[in-house]
Amino acid sequence: MADKKKRRRTESDADPESDPLPFKSKLKPDSVILQSLKALAAEYAPSTSSSAAKPLTLSDLFLSDACREVTDLPLSSVQSAIESLVLNLTHSILSGQGFSFSVPSRSSANQLYVPELDRIVLKDKSSLRPYANVSTVRKTTITARILQLIHQLCLKNIHVTKRDLFYTDVKLFQDQTQSDTVLDDVSCILGCTRSSLNVIAAEKGVVVGRLIFSDNGDMIDCTKMGMGGKAIPPNIDRVGDMQSDALFILLVEKDAAYIRLAEDRFYNRFPCIIVTAKGQPDVATRLFLRKMKMELNLPVLALVDSDPYGLKILSVYGCGSKNMSYDSANLTTPDIKWLGIRPSDLDKYNIPEQCRLPMTELDIKTGKDLLEEDFVKKNPGWVEELNLMVKTKQKAEIQALSSFGFQYLSEVYLPLKLQQRDWL
Amino acid sequence: MADKKKRRRTESDADPESDPLPFKSKLKPDSVILQSLKALAAEYAPSTSSSAAKPLTLSDLFLSDACREVTDLPLSSVQSAIESLVLNLTHSILSGQGFSFSVPSRSSANQLYVPELDRIVLKDKSSLRPYANVSTVRKTTITARILQLIHQLCLKNIHVTKRDLFYTDVKLFQDQTQSDTVLDDVSCILGCTRSSLNVIAAEKGVVVGRLIFSDNGDMIDCTKMGMGGKAIPPNIDRVGDMQSDALFILLVEKDAAYIRLAEDRFYNRFPCIIVTAKGQPDVATRLFLRKMKMELNLPVLALVDSDPYGLKILSVYGCGSKNMSYDSANLTTPDIKWLGIRPSDLDKYNIPEQCRLPMTELDIKTGKDLLEEDFVKKNPGWVEELNLMVKTKQKAEIQALSSFGFQYLSEVYLPLKLQQRDWL
């Protein structure tokens, strides 16, 4: 018997395609897995866990004076905020005091990780940016110009990219980093998100599965988007009316895995919404994921490569990137679960040695640095997995599962993960 | 009067946003422009130009023996091609002659630009890849393995990425360039396109506007895709049923310009289909563009940056990239017109000096190299524009038009271009 088993494994190594799929026998009927997923979704529904559903805010923690966050504001509020700011400046000039902007500091010294919120936020330090000062006159002028351009966007109610903004006054801005930086300053000054300013990032994410939503007035049914899926809109403020009968959201790092799941219409076997930013998370995808999570109250399960960058990508979705920490509340999706590929999966699923890659020195350093990050430390399961990765010095891509057959991901790995509720 | 004009221009430089848009007064009513566009579309309709509509083939030029191209084959034909290939190999082995693959050469020495086709094709050189030879045994084994994997894809009728393919046998392939290279060989051996092999590239393009098509069985109406648009499917063989009342296809290099046109629903003012690969053209977008052009018989107008890379991108859509020249017939879209931004537009539209960028040494070299390319030389208008670019040493992005206002592109520049039929 043991011999037989061994022989089969050897055959399977030699030609996994034509052999029975490893661990497939462990799979229970779909109805059993679905039952468990329904129970999971119920845990996330607002009625059963009303306390957990209402997210903590800075003021709940008595931090609203000490910390600063921006909020989504309607266009009319942005417009009047700019107008009253300019009115104040005019008064200041007329009273002979000249003018200056008070700009919140976005430096790392002014950043704070708040464990209760599981986000990075800004502390309350700000600095004055006076016009009548040789060292700040240029930046003050740029700030005034950006405010004026944003005001025009409000009047016209259109969206532009950062690059468009830069090109409206190249003579003044000189290079795009200057207009970009001041744009973030203006967000902080007005206390609103960058998307509220109608300045958008190019989109690169796609979504498919059990979701209906409106994009700029058009109703989109993501079960009818073929294999290509729906491109995630760059402007979240025109996204609305989300409806779904999904039981969870599957966040996928790479497009190859996304394509596999879209072609196999995985969302029809296990009702879910599949979303990917095709690598590094962009702002549009992060906003879209958060909006789904908040409106639909669904668990978010992440499928990323088993390497430090997979975990880093998970962290950007989960608790934000450092250079946009002032906007962390609107950009981050709390409580994302690490489904896979986890370092412990490599042995658990017998990923063949040749599909595991040795970690480079830089990989190992990145992994060790991550172990020092608050968002990892607060999750003992993640620490354990990351320690295992750094110890074994092995990484693996999601595609490594293809060594058991092209559809192993959708036919065995994911269903088994869901059945066993195997996430951290 | 002259003074007044001058004053206005100065004001416009100082604050283009609040001023009348330059050249807007030249615009005729939309109905006049539409009339001209309808006439243009009629020129492209198959009935009025049946000779031009039927594209030339290698055999029309008596080159089918001397040159090689691959064609789209249905999955069943790919499957039987593999089976008869393997049958021949088996006969060869059984008759004691061992076995070898005859592999068409894809080196640049074996490539030929055919002006009548306006494409790069492969000449007829091929080489033997025998199993019983130390220098080729590995590559022969890889070739056999890839053939076997493709055969499995045929049986299952699923699509995978190159990365998936690599991971099915890392031990043999060692690194992905090896499986990728042999995959291209297998295309040439079987005489079919890579998409016929069901091996697909990750998609990154989006499409919006007056197009209805089916993606994997789902009907997609691209006028109802909001601002985000529809992600172009990675597998062209599941795309079909294209219908459109558009008068032209607008091919856009960058997503910022795409977003502007999508938000302004430019396609409702001038019926068109707007498509972008967000930078470098990917295979899926190239296949999609070609399919639209062939099925809908519409003119394709390209909006790219005014720099050597803009023209290079245009050339990849138009006549192919060198490393996939064996597949040029299926990947290229003939007769793409260069709408803008052209070097001569910089002065014609008074693009402010500060929005023009100096070309680097490398830019200038790339520009000069392009002047030697056949696909540029055959179009005297392009040569003239490119000469102007290299002479003035100035380049400009599409976004440079934003200096006249965020919507200058959609409200003045493009309508005026269409009105004046200003393309090359």
TrEMBL record, chains A, B:
Keyword Nucleus applies: yes
Alphabetized Pfam families for the sequence: TOP6A-Spo11_Toprim, Topo_VI_alpha, TP6A_N
E.C. numbers: 5.6.2.2
Residue numbers annotated as active site: 167 (o-(5'-phospho-dna)-tyrosine intermediate), 167 (nucleophile)
Domain Spo11/DNA topoisomerase VI subunit A N-terminal: 138-199
Binding site residues for Mg(2+): 253, 305
Leader sequence segment: none
Annotated GO CC locations: DNA topoisomerase type II (double strand cut, ATP-hydrolyzing) complex; nucleus
Keywords tagged on the record: DNA-binding, Isomerase, Magnesium, Metal-binding, Nucleotide-binding, Nucleus, Topoisomerase
Protein name: DNA topoisomerase 6 subunit A
Native source species: Cinchona calisaya
